[in-house]
Amino acid sequence: MHPSFHFRLWELTPPAKIDDMTNPNFTRPGAVDLSALSAAQPVAGAAGGGYVTDITEAGFQDLVGRSMQHPVIVEFHSPRDTGGAAVSADLAALVNAAEGRFLLARVNVDAEQRLAQALGVTAVPMVVAIIGGQVAPLFQGTRDRADISAVLDQVSQLAVANGMTGRAQPTGSAAPERAAEPATDPRFEKADAALAAGDFARAVAEFDILLAATPGDPEATAGRAQAALLERSASFDGAAVVKAAAERPNDVAAQLDAADLEVIQGEYAPAFDRLLGLATEVGPDERETIRVRLLELFEVAGRTSSEVLRARRRLTTVLF
Protein backbone atom coordinates (compact mmCIF):
# COMPACT_ATOMS: atom_id res chain seq x y z
CA MET A 1 0.00 0.00 0.00
CA HIS A 2 1.27 3.47 -0.80
CA PRO A 3 2.01 5.61 2.26
CA SER A 4 -0.32 8.52 2.94
CA PHE A 5 2.08 10.50 5.07
CA HIS A 6 4.51 12.01 2.55
CA PHE A 7 6.20 14.96 4.25
CA ARG A 8 9.66 16.43 4.15
CA LEU A 9 11.77 18.37 6.65
CA TRP A 10 11.56 22.08 5.82
CA GLU A 11 12.50 25.33 7.48
CA LEU A 12 9.03 25.81 8.96
CA THR A 13 9.51 25.79 12.71
CA PRO A 14 12.51 25.77 15.04
CA PRO A 15 13.91 22.44 16.24
CA ALA A 16 11.85 20.94 19.03
CA LYS A 17 12.98 21.91 22.50
CA ILE A 18 14.36 19.22 24.70
CA ASP A 19 11.52 19.77 27.20
CA ASP A 20 9.08 18.62 24.53
CA MET A 21 10.95 15.35 24.16
CA THR A 22 10.95 14.18 27.76
CA ASN A 23 7.45 12.73 27.57
CA PRO A 24 7.76 8.94 27.30
CA ASN A 25 4.60 8.83 25.19
CA PHE A 26 4.41 9.43 21.49
CA THR A 27 4.10 13.11 20.59
CA ARG A 28 2.79 14.91 17.53
CA PRO A 29 5.27 15.20 14.64
CA GLY A 30 6.99 18.57 14.31
CA ALA A 31 8.97 20.02 11.44
CA VAL A 32 12.70 20.60 11.86
CA ASP A 33 15.05 22.86 9.93
CA LEU A 34 17.49 20.64 8.06
CA SER A 35 17.90 22.89 5.04
CA ALA A 36 21.62 23.21 5.67
CA LEU A 37 22.02 19.46 5.34
CA SER A 38 20.01 18.95 2.16
CA ALA A 39 23.01 18.85 -0.16
CA ALA A 40 24.59 15.89 1.58
CA GLN A 41 25.12 12.65 -0.31
CA PRO A 42 23.69 9.41 1.13
CA VAL A 43 26.23 7.31 2.98
CA ALA A 44 25.33 4.82 5.71
CA GLY A 45 27.01 1.81 7.24
CA ALA A 46 25.77 -1.21 9.12
CA ALA A 47 25.93 -1.20 12.91
CA GLY A 48 25.31 -4.64 14.23
CA GLY A 49 23.29 -5.98 11.30
CA GLY A 50 19.62 -6.72 11.16
CA TYR A 51 17.65 -3.48 10.86
CA VAL A 52 20.18 -1.25 12.63
CA THR A 53 22.55 1.14 10.88
CA ASP A 54 24.94 3.93 11.81
CA ILE A 55 24.10 7.19 10.09
CA THR A 56 26.12 10.32 9.39
CA GLU A 57 25.13 13.77 8.22
CA ALA A 58 25.98 12.67 4.70
CA GLY A 59 23.39 9.89 4.88
CA PHE A 60 20.58 11.76 6.53
CA GLN A 61 18.72 12.79 3.38
CA ASP A 62 18.75 9.17 2.26
CA LEU A 63 17.25 8.30 5.63
CA VAL A 64 14.47 10.83 5.09
CA GLY A 65 13.77 9.20 1.73
CA ARG A 66 13.47 5.78 3.35
CA SER A 67 10.97 7.17 5.83
CA MET A 68 8.53 7.63 2.95
CA GLN A 69 8.13 3.84 2.96
CA HIS A 70 8.45 2.87 6.63
CA PRO A 71 9.14 4.57 9.97
CA VAL A 72 12.76 5.28 10.78
CA ILE A 73 13.78 5.41 14.44
CA VAL A 74 16.79 7.67 15.06
CA GLU A 75 18.81 7.24 18.23
CA PHE A 76 21.22 10.03 19.18
CA HIS A 77 23.87 8.59 21.47
CA SER A 78 27.40 9.10 22.72
CA PRO A 79 29.99 6.41 23.43
CA ARG A 80 30.84 8.42 26.54
CA ASP A 81 27.33 7.92 27.92
CA THR A 82 27.52 4.54 29.62
CA GLY A 83 24.01 4.97 31.01
CA GLY A 84 22.56 4.97 27.50
CA ALA A 85 24.02 1.57 26.56
CA ALA A 86 20.95 -0.28 27.80
CA VAL A 87 18.67 1.94 25.74
CA SER A 88 20.78 1.23 22.65
CA ALA A 89 20.69 -2.51 23.26
CA ASP A 90 16.94 -2.59 23.89
CA LEU A 91 16.19 -0.45 20.84
CA ALA A 92 18.29 -2.68 18.60
CA ALA A 93 16.69 -5.85 19.95
CA LEU A 94 13.15 -4.54 19.61
CA VAL A 95 13.69 -3.12 16.11
CA ASN A 96 15.33 -6.32 14.88
CA ALA A 97 12.51 -8.38 16.39
CA ALA A 98 10.02 -6.27 14.39
CA GLU A 99 11.65 -7.63 11.19
CA GLY A 100 11.38 -4.56 9.01
CA ARG A 101 8.57 -2.55 10.55
CA PHE A 102 11.26 0.01 11.42
CA LEU A 103 14.83 0.89 10.58
CA LEU A 104 16.96 2.01 13.53
CA ALA A 105 19.54 4.65 12.61
CA ARG A 106 22.12 5.49 15.28
CA VAL A 107 23.84 8.89 15.33
CA ASN A 108 27.02 9.39 17.35
CA VAL A 109 26.62 12.99 18.50
CA ASP A 110 30.33 13.31 19.27
CA ALA A 111 31.15 12.70 15.62
CA GLU A 112 28.04 14.31 14.10
CA GLN A 113 27.72 17.56 16.01
CA ARG A 114 26.17 19.54 13.16
CA LEU A 115 23.45 16.96 12.61
CA ALA A 116 22.73 16.80 16.34
CA GLN A 117 22.48 20.59 16.48
CA ALA A 118 20.11 20.67 13.51
CA LEU A 119 17.78 18.27 15.35
CA GLY A 120 18.00 20.26 18.58
CA VAL A 121 19.79 17.53 20.52
CA THR A 122 21.07 18.82 23.86
CA ALA A 123 21.21 15.56 25.83
CA VAL A 124 21.56 11.86 25.09
CA PRO A 125 20.18 9.36 24.65
CA MET A 126 17.48 11.02 22.57
CA VAL A 127 15.18 9.07 20.26
CA VAL A 128 12.97 10.44 17.50
CA ALA A 129 10.99 8.89 14.67
CA ILE A 130 10.94 10.05 11.07
CA ILE A 131 7.62 9.21 9.44
CA GLY A 132 7.14 10.28 5.86
CA GLY A 133 9.95 12.81 6.27
CA GLN A 134 8.55 14.43 9.39
CA VAL A 135 10.27 14.26 12.75
CA ALA A 136 8.29 13.01 15.75
CA PRO A 137 10.05 13.28 19.15
CA LEU A 138 9.71 10.02 21.11
CA PHE A 139 11.74 10.31 24.31
CA GLN A 140 14.90 11.70 25.85
CA GLY A 141 16.77 10.01 28.66
CA THR A 142 16.79 6.39 29.72
CA ARG A 143 13.73 4.15 29.40
CA ASP A 144 13.23 0.50 30.22
CA ARG A 145 12.48 -2.03 27.51
CA ALA A 146 8.74 -2.12 28.23
CA ASP A 147 8.43 1.65 27.78
CA ILE A 148 10.47 1.58 24.58
CA SER A 149 8.36 -1.27 23.23
CA ALA A 150 5.18 0.70 23.95
CA VAL A 151 6.53 3.75 22.13
CA LEU A 152 7.49 1.67 19.09
CA ASP A 153 4.02 0.13 19.06
CA GLN A 154 2.52 3.62 18.89
CA VAL A 155 4.81 4.53 16.00
CA SER A 156 3.77 1.38 14.18
CA GLN A 157 0.08 2.08 14.77
CA LEU A 158 0.44 5.63 13.44
CA ALA A 159 2.21 4.39 10.33
CA VAL A 160 -0.39 1.71 9.61
CA ALA A 161 -3.26 4.13 10.25
CA ASN A 162 -1.82 6.35 7.54
CA GLY A 163 -1.38 3.57 5.02
CA MET A 164 2.38 3.21 5.46
CA THR A 165 2.96 -0.53 5.15
CA GLY A 166 6.39 -0.69 3.52
CA ARG A 167 9.16 -2.77 5.10
CA ALA A 168 12.73 -1.78 5.81
CA GLN A 169 15.42 -3.76 4.04
CA PRO A 170 17.82 -5.58 6.37
CA THR A 171 21.37 -4.29 6.67
CA GLY A 172 24.62 -5.94 7.66
CA SER A 173 25.63 -9.50 8.35
CA ALA A 174 22.81 -10.23 10.75
CA ALA A 175 20.13 -9.77 8.08
CA PRO A 176 17.53 -12.53 8.02
CA GLU A 177 18.16 -15.15 5.37
CA ARG A 178 14.53 -15.22 4.24
CA ALA A 179 13.59 -13.16 1.22
CA ALA A 180 12.73 -9.59 2.14
CA GLU A 181 9.16 -8.47 1.64
CA PRO A 182 8.60 -5.87 -1.07
CA ALA A 183 9.07 -2.43 0.43
CA THR A 184 6.46 -0.80 -1.77
CA ASP A 185 3.75 -1.53 -4.27
CA PRO A 186 5.65 -1.70 -7.59
CA ARG A 187 3.07 0.56 -9.20
CA PHE A 188 4.43 3.44 -7.16
CA GLU A 189 8.15 2.87 -7.71
CA LYS A 190 8.62 5.84 -10.06
CA ALA A 191 6.54 8.19 -7.94
CA ASP A 192 8.29 7.10 -4.75
CA ALA A 193 11.70 7.49 -6.36
CA ALA A 194 10.76 11.04 -7.35
CA LEU A 195 9.58 11.79 -3.82
CA ALA A 196 12.75 10.39 -2.30
CA ALA A 197 14.79 12.55 -4.70
CA GLY A 198 12.81 15.65 -3.77
CA ASP A 199 11.45 16.01 -7.32
CA PHE A 200 7.86 16.63 -6.30
CA ALA A 201 6.68 17.91 -9.69
CA ARG A 202 7.79 14.63 -11.28
CA ALA A 203 6.06 12.71 -8.49
CA VAL A 204 2.80 14.53 -9.25
CA ALA A 205 3.21 13.68 -12.92
CA GLU A 206 3.82 9.99 -12.11
CA PHE A 207 0.70 9.86 -9.96
CA ASP A 208 -1.27 11.51 -12.78
CA ILE A 209 -0.14 8.71 -15.09
CA LEU A 210 -1.36 6.13 -12.58
CA LEU A 211 -4.68 7.91 -12.15
CA ALA A 212 -5.18 8.08 -15.92
CA ALA A 213 -4.86 4.29 -16.00
CA THR A 214 -6.89 3.67 -12.83
CA PRO A 215 -9.17 6.66 -12.18
CA GLY A 216 -10.17 7.08 -8.57
CA ASP A 217 -7.51 4.70 -7.22
CA PRO A 218 -7.44 5.69 -3.52
CA GLU A 219 -3.72 5.14 -3.02
CA ALA A 220 -2.73 7.03 -6.15
CA THR A 221 -5.17 9.82 -5.26
CA ALA A 222 -3.65 10.14 -1.79
CA GLY A 223 -0.13 9.97 -3.17
CA ARG A 224 -0.83 12.71 -5.68
CA ALA A 225 -2.32 14.94 -3.00
CA GLN A 226 0.75 14.49 -0.83
CA ALA A 227 3.16 15.12 -3.70
CA ALA A 228 1.22 18.25 -4.69
CA LEU A 229 1.40 19.52 -1.12
CA LEU A 230 5.15 18.95 -1.09
CA GLU A 231 5.54 20.74 -4.42
CA ARG A 232 3.50 23.76 -3.28
CA SER A 233 5.26 24.12 0.04
CA ALA A 234 8.86 23.23 -0.84
CA SER A 235 9.83 26.91 -0.81
CA PHE A 236 7.67 27.97 2.12
CA ASP A 237 8.97 30.48 4.62
CA GLY A 238 6.83 29.49 7.60
CA ALA A 239 6.98 32.86 9.34
CA ALA A 240 6.06 34.71 6.14
CA VAL A 241 3.12 32.37 5.50
CA VAL A 242 1.76 32.91 9.01
CA LYS A 243 2.24 36.68 8.75
CA ALA A 244 0.49 36.92 5.36
CA ALA A 245 -2.48 34.88 6.56
CA ALA A 246 -2.88 37.07 9.66
CA GLU A 247 -2.65 40.31 7.68
CA ARG A 248 -4.93 39.19 4.82
CA PRO A 249 -7.74 37.09 6.31
CA ASN A 250 -9.83 37.28 3.14
CA ASP A 251 -6.97 36.55 0.72
CA VAL A 252 -7.67 33.05 -0.60
CA ALA A 253 -4.09 32.41 -1.74
CA ALA A 254 -2.68 33.42 1.65
CA GLN A 255 -5.18 31.26 3.51
CA LEU A 256 -4.52 28.27 1.23
CA ASP A 257 -0.81 28.54 2.03
CA ALA A 258 -1.55 28.79 5.74
CA ALA A 259 -3.76 25.71 5.59
CA ASP A 260 -1.01 23.81 3.76
CA LEU A 261 1.43 24.79 6.48
CA GLU A 262 -0.94 23.66 9.21
CA VAL A 263 -1.47 20.29 7.55
CA ILE A 264 2.30 19.82 7.21
CA GLN A 265 2.58 20.43 10.94
CA GLY A 266 -0.20 17.96 11.69
CA GLU A 267 -2.75 20.64 12.62
CA TYR A 268 -5.55 19.23 10.49
CA ALA A 269 -8.59 20.65 12.27
CA PRO A 270 -7.32 24.28 12.26
CA ALA A 271 -6.44 23.98 8.57
CA PHE A 272 -9.89 22.68 7.66
CA ASP A 273 -11.64 25.26 9.86
CA ARG A 274 -9.63 28.03 8.25
CA LEU A 275 -10.71 27.09 4.72
CA LEU A 276 -14.28 26.16 5.56
CA GLY A 277 -14.79 29.49 7.29
CA LEU A 278 -13.36 31.34 4.31
CA ALA A 279 -15.58 29.39 1.91
CA THR A 280 -18.67 30.94 3.46
CA GLU A 281 -17.39 34.46 2.70
CA VAL A 282 -16.22 34.23 -0.92
CA GLY A 283 -17.80 33.92 -4.33
CA PRO A 284 -18.53 30.72 -6.27
CA ASP A 285 -15.22 30.60 -8.16
CA GLU A 286 -13.09 31.03 -5.05
CA ARG A 287 -15.34 28.61 -3.17
CA GLU A 288 -14.61 25.99 -5.81
CA THR A 289 -10.86 26.61 -5.44
CA ILE A 290 -11.20 26.07 -1.70
CA ARG A 291 -13.27 22.92 -2.22
CA VAL A 292 -10.63 21.36 -4.48
CA ARG A 293 -7.86 22.18 -2.02
CA LEU A 294 -9.83 20.77 0.90
CA LEU A 295 -10.39 17.50 -0.94
CA GLU A 296 -6.64 17.24 -1.53
CA LEU A 297 -5.86 17.97 2.11
CA PHE A 298 -8.45 15.39 3.20
CA GLU A 299 -6.40 12.80 1.30
CA VAL A 300 -3.23 13.89 3.07
CA ALA A 301 -4.83 13.69 6.50
CA GLY A 302 -6.48 10.34 5.73
CA ARG A 303 -10.03 9.81 4.56
CA THR A 304 -11.14 8.10 7.76
CA SER A 305 -9.57 10.47 10.28
CA SER A 306 -12.02 12.12 12.65
CA GLU A 307 -10.93 15.60 11.53
CA VAL A 308 -11.63 14.75 7.89
CA LEU A 309 -15.02 13.19 8.62
CA ARG A 310 -16.14 16.28 10.55
CA ALA A 311 -14.79 18.67 7.93
CA ARG A 312 -16.36 16.72 5.08
CA ARG A 313 -19.80 16.99 6.70
CA ARG A 314 -19.30 20.71 7.19
CA LEU A 315 -18.11 21.11 3.59
CA THR A 316 -21.37 19.60 2.35
CA THR A 317 -23.28 22.17 4.37
CA VAL A 318 -21.15 25.04 3.04
CA LEU A 319 -21.60 23.95 -0.58
CA PHE A 320 -25.31 23.18 -0.45
TrEMBL record:
InterPro entries: Thioredoxin-like_sf, Thioredoxin_domain, TPR-like_helical_dom_sf. Residues 165-186 are annotated as: Disordered. Pfam families: Thioredoxin, TPR_20. GO terms for biological process: cell redox homeostasis; response to stress. Residues 54-153 form the Thioredoxin domain. PANTHER family: THIOREDOXIN, MITOCHONDRIAL. This is Thioredoxin. It comes from Arachnia propionica. The lineage of its organism: Bacteria, Bacillati, Actinomycetota, Actinomycetes, Propionibacteriales.
